[in-house]
Write a structure and sequence with these properties.
This protein has eight helices and 23 strands. By secondary structure, it is an alpha+beta fold.
């Protein structure tokens, strides 16, 4: 009897524990905290110091921008005679303002050409204000660009381009000048939004939080939004969030899903996808039409005329494949092996999966993006 119990415990520890551990994840990996978010910044600026690879004369806005910049330093020019220089380029600058960032911190910026510049290699971005969606300036960007691409051209018009020479980054190239509104501090409670709404996951989160902090601390509004009572004091709330961060939660069973990208031919399935009993047959019908041209030559001294001839050759070839039977509850691995056995390409795999879904044999949600 004791040996039976020991064997049973070993069996449970070997098979049950890994299954539970695989589903257990840190709480903050499953949710987003309301008010703790990034903000997008964008600006318009000039890159200078280009070795003749900047915007051409027909790009008027880069010349106007240079003229406006010169005016700020007391250099006035006739509006009808805009400066012409191939060493400058008008660029769009964007960056991401981290959550709860403070003035004085540095962030990375990305710079992209707006005109017809060939390359931004070797250029420097002039001081550029970066604005948020509210129109306020949150950061100032400036610095030397790091460009991963290159462009080389010859006198006869031939050129070689590697990667994207009209786009670059400036590491730590912007200094934050203004705080974003701290919506997290203004919230009476901590609001958690599930990244993947799920009733079972929401219930498990509520149970895990209440087990640590006591009953009634957490409650679920719906399958994707949770309310958690938290201290109002900033220091106490920070300690509270650090304790939330350490809680591990068992994620609820996810929905079987097949994602099909019709543009790239990419098909992604999670391991929950199953197929009911179904029969699949796959074959290709190839029709080849070849046109040939010739001429009919008359015999010597026959007073005949040369006539053009056109011949068409049509060949029909249908690939013969056997019908494949998929039994009840076929798993993901078996689906992939079966489709590969038919010799289907990714685009043909999409057609097979769509047909299985229409036939009601695919136990998964089919998403075409």
């Amino acid at each position: 009897m004791n040996r039976f119990i020991v064997a049973l415990c070993v069996f449970i520890s070997c098979f049950s524990a890994p299954t539970l551990a695989a589903k257990s994840r840190p709480l903050l990996d499953l949710v987003d905290v309301l008010g703790v978010r990034e903000n997008q910044l964008v600006g318009y600026g000039l890159v200078v110091g280009l070795a003749g690879s900047g915007d051409k004369a027909q790009v008027k806005f880069s010349a106007q921008s240079l003229n406006n910049m010169l005016k700020q330093f007391g250099v006035t020019m006739d509006e009808s005679a805009l400066p012409k220089s191939k060493n400058i380029a008008a660029v769009a600058v964007h960056a991401t303002l981290p959550a709860m960032a403070n003035p004085g911190q540095a962030i990375d910026v990305t710079v992209n050409s707006l005109g017809d510049a060939k390359s931004l290699h070797g250029g420097s971005l002039m001081l550029t204000p970066l604005k948020g969606v509210d129109g306020k300036v949150y950061a100032l960007a400036q610095g030397n660009l790091v460009v991963g691409g290159m462009n080389a051209s010859g006198q006869n018009g031939s050129s070689v381009t590697v990667n994207v020479p009209t786009s670059g980054i400036i590491p730590s190239g912007a200094i934050i000048e203004r705080n974003a509104a701290d919506m997290f501090k203004l919230q009476a409670n901590v609001v958690l939004n599930l990244k993947q709404p799920n009733y079972q996951t929401a219930r498990n989160i509520v149970k895990a939080i209440n087990k640590v902090f006591g009953p009634g601390i957490a409650s679920a509004e719906n399958w994707g939004r949770l309310q958690v009572s938290a201290p109002a004091d900033a220091n106490s709330r920070n300690t509270f969030m650090s304790m939330l961060q350490d809680i591990r939660v068992e994620q609820g069973l996810q929905q079987p899903r097949v994602i099909v990208n019709s543009r790239t031919g990419t098909v992604v399935m999670n391991d929950l996808v199953k197929v009911n009993r179904a029969a699949v047959s796959h074959g290709n019908l190839t029709i080849t039409i070849a046109e040939t041209e010739g001429a009919s030559q008359p015999g010597a001294f026959s007073n005949g005329r040369t006539l053009p001839l056109q011949a068409s050759m049509v060949d029909v070839n249908e690939q013969q494949n056997h019908m494949l039977l998929m039994p009840e509850g076929t798993s993901l691995d078996e689906i992939v092996k079966a489709v590969n056995a038919l010799g289907a390409t990714p685009s043909e795999l999409m057609s097979i999966l769509i047909a299985l879904d229409k036939a009601g044999a695919l136990e998964a949600e089919l998403l075409v993006i």
